[in-house]
Amino acid sequence: MHRFVPVLPAALALTGALAVPSAAAPAADPRPITSPYVQAAADVTASGWLRRSKNIDWVRHVNTGRYCVNVSEEVNLAFSVVSVELPNSNRRSFSTTPNRICGPDAVTVNTYDLRGNYADNPFTVVVF
Predict the structure, then answer these.
(1) 41 and 30 Cβ atoms separated by less than 8 Å
(2) Listed residue (80, 72, 62, 74) closest to 42, CA to CA
């Protein structure tokens, strides 16, 4: 029994290192959003990394302050209401869907500073 004691802390340290994703490398799948009242939702970082989602296939950071949020096929954007919020910010946002930059199944999100210049911001998108 005493022979396994030095191996156990090393194994636990290795397992812990593998289980926690680093800040530089985001997890492969975002955490799910489990809201029964929305068709789709996304919680996106300023760099365009998808933190949490429901019925969102991917997010692309196109340029400074410009993002494409692709919604799953099961959501019909033509008959939906899209809301974009910038949490903890006094900056502004604007969204359109669809367009030629992001495609027919995507919401385009533009975020601005107070002077109206494009600026990267974290945001949330909700499709009702």
Answers:
(1) no
(2) 72
Under DSSP, the state recorded for 118 is: B
- Per-residue model confidence as pLDDT tens digits over 28-40: 578 877 777 899 9
H or E segment at 13? Answer: helix 7-19
State pLDDT tens for residues 115-125: 889 999 999 99
pLDDT at 32: 79
What is the C-alpha to C-alpha distance for residues 66 and 79, in angstroms, rounded to an integer? 24
**DSSP assignment of 102-116, as one string?**
TBTTEEEEEEE-TTS
Q: Backbone phi, then psi, for 17, in 5-degree steps?
A: -65, -35
Neighbours of 125 (CB within 10 A): 24
Mean pLDDT value of segment 74-99 = 87
